[in-house]
Design brief:
By secondary structure, this protein is α+β, with helices and mostly antiparallel strands. Among the domains are: 7-183, no CATH class; 339-497, Immunoglobulin-like (Sandwich); 518-617, no CATH class.
């Protein structure tokens, strides 16, 4: 008896006398039990597509062995594809040999690396299971190194999981067997080469050819099932009139995708016109430049001269120029590396003015003079488990103690309605601005510490609180979480102000205020383009409007565990559910199921073990 799951494993591969590739492989369920490929002896046939490519040692690019022609009007281009028309032979329980229809090109060197890849699916008890497999070999079947520039696990920090073309292609090592220089999109004329495609998709609304191009300029690909995917489009004549993908951290952080890959450092060392224009796509190396292009700042150049300016230690060092100002200043040792912690809090009583003892230090553990800071304050809020109020207090008047810490009794008072047992959240925020010279240009660099947060119950008893989200989880995708001027850096600190009684009224010049309650705001921001009620605009730090209507969440929106660190997300509530499910019908449903006294009956249908429990309708999908 077999169970759920699918594991495809390529055991060996080599070319036969006819230059076809003979691949030995195994298919099992998640428990390692052998599967019948055709589904006659075990439940769920295994559907497999094979893809083969040779690594060109001269270009270090893969070239597909399976190629088809795609037409669009009078335009015909080559596109890589997979094959399913080879022959199978069973060699044992769950083990088979596949002989390809593709042949290894004549003249292939015996040491050249051939990538043998496959993607497979199996349906079992209403679930579809997917497995990808890759093996790098030579013509004779010896192990070959292949090429590894990115890692799928890096992609999955945001994409949870990467699942392209109907969800069946999930491994970047598989992706490059088709997405290489031999493939072009006939409809748009854009190359499908992996570095170009992926860099430009992630550049999205910041892609120079679009952001600085004429109205209507776009970057689009017609892909799987002939669907058109527009990743960036210039919608109007004004700066910022661009819609498209917004990468959730700095685009210059190449390590986000390339870290840990065997040749990941190529992102920094393989400096040439082709690689650089995958992002800087409006730069031309001929004079005069073509329309809507700009001339390379150093004029026409060829690849032989790139490293002379952009190599390590050169005047336009690639690595240095891909550091933002704070990263550069930190790398140069120009910043103190601030940290802070709260030593104690007292006076946590109804109507009380709390006394806070805290410490600020530099990266060497030396106590820091807070008079140098441009801002330092505490934020008090509560109750921690369902926050209703907050207040902030300037701490710049704190007095230094003999041990280097500081103590201050704030002038603000806590609510006089605080009851026994209520837990109050206390967080610190602060920063210092540094004016620095970077390559002859004056830069203001803000150095902020991560926000320490502690909890005290009324009566000055230290307490704990388990938030449903965590900064570390946010940063798997966002990199370095830093909001509101870069000095709000911890999710638990965010919760102090972003509660159910807060709106953007103080920042919004006119119109109806919008809730900035964390659980509502974050769900809506991430749902973005899938919201029914649009535009979704919040006025934030500096009175700047932020339109989140075109945010494209890169993962599965119903995979709640992506962001949540405990099971609290399984508890239904109107505020949370209608933040994503924002149609008028859903709002009416919630209103009908709420009593006149405000009691919600959501749990009757959506509570744990109920027919439509949150955990059931937001069920994790098999990977």
């Amino acid at each position: 008896m077999v169970g759920p799951g699918l594991v495809l494993e390529i055991l060996s591969a080599a070319a036969n006398a006819s230059d076809q590739l003979v691949v030995r492989f195994r298919v099992t369920d998640e428990g390692g039990r052998a599967l019948d490929r055709e589904g006659l002896l075990t439940v769920g046939p295994v559907d497999i597509t094979w893809v083969f490519a040779v690594l060109d040692p001269a270009t270090e690019k893969y070239q597909s062995l399976n190629v088809r022609q795609e037409m669009d009007g009078n335009v015909t281009v080559d596109q890589a594809t997979g094959e399913r028309d080879g022959t199978y032979q069973e060699v044992g329980p769950g083990e088979y040999e596949y002989t390809s229809s593709a042949v290894v090109p004549a003249g292939t060197d015996p040491t050249d690396s051939i990538r043998v890849a496959a993607y497979a699916t199996r349906d079992f008890e209403g679930q579809r299971y997917v497995s990808n497999a890759v093996l790098d070999v030579t013509v004779t079947g010896d192990p070959a190194p292949g090429r590894e520039i990115v890692l799928t696990e890096n992609c999955n920090q945001c994409h949870n999981p990467l699942a392209a073309h109907g969800g069946r292609r999930r491994d970047t090592a598989l992706c490059v067997t088709c997405h290489n220089p031999g493939s072009t999109d006939a409809q748009t004329g854009n190359t499908l080469d992996f570095p170009v495609l992926v860099h430009r998709i992630h550049m999205g609304a910041e892609l120079p050819s679009v952001a600085e191009g004429p109205v209507g300029a776009e970057y689009a690909i017609v892909g799987y099932m002939n669907r058109r995917h527009t990743y960036a489009i210039r919608t109007g004549p004004n700066p910022g009139d661009v819609e498209g993908v917004h990468f959730p951290q700095e685009m210059t952080r190449c390590f986000t995708c390339h870290a840990g890959a065997r040749e990941g450092d190529h992102a920094y060392t393989e400096i040439n016109r082709y690689n650089c224009t995958t992002c800087h796509d409006n730069v031309a190396f001929e004079d005069p430049p073509p329309p809507n292009k700009v001339l390379h700042p150093a004029g026409p150049q060829d690849d032989a001269t790139c490293a002379g300016c952009h190599g390590e230690g050169m005047s336009a060092d690639f690595r240095e120029h891909h550091l933002d100002d704070h990263e550069w200043a930190a790398a140069e040792g120009l910043l103190p590396g601030l940290s802070a912690r709260i030593e104690s809090v007292s006076g946590v009583v109804a109507g009380g003015s709390p006394t806070v003892t805290f410490r600020v230090q530099d990266s060497s553990g030396n106590d820091y003079d807070i008079s140098q800071l441009d801002l330092l304050r505490a934020v008090f809020s509560g109750p921690a488990d369902d926050t209703e109020w907050d207040l902030s207090s300037d701490l710049s008047g704190a007095v230094q103690n003999a041990d280097g810490s500081y103590t201050v009794t704030v002038s603000e008072t806590l609510p006089d309605t605080l009851a026994a047992g209520v837990v109050v959240r206390v967080g610190l925020e602060g920063f210092q601005n540094f004016t620095l010279d970077r390559d002859g240009e004056s830069k203001v660099v803000r150095e902020a510490f991560d926000n320490p947060v502690v909890y005290y119950a009324v009566g000055d008893t230290p307490a704990t609180y388990e938030a449903t989200v965590a900064t570390a989880v946010c940063e798997t995708c966002h990199g370095d979480l830093a909001a509101h001027g870069g000095f709000r850096r911890e999710v638990e600190h965010c919760l102090g102000c972003h509660h159910e009684n807060k709106t953007d009224a103080a920042m919004r010049p006119s119109g109806t205020p919008v809730s900035v309650d964390f659980k509502v705001m974050i769900h809506k921001i991430h749902r973005g383009e899938h919201l029914e009620q649009k535009p979704y605009v919040i006025y934030g730090y500096g009175n700047v409007p932020h339109d989140f209507s075109d945010v494209r969440f890169p993962g599965r929106l119903n995979a709640c565990r992506t962001c949540h660190v405990n099971e609290a997300w399984q508890e239904p509530s109107t505020a949370v559910c209608t933040s994503c499910h924002d149609s008028p019908a859903t709002a009416a449903h919630a209103e009908i199921n709420t009593s006149a006294s405000g009691v919600e009956s959501c749990a009757v249908c959506h509570g744990e073990d109920a027919e439509f429990a949150v955990a059931k309708v937001h069920q994790d999908q098999p990977e």
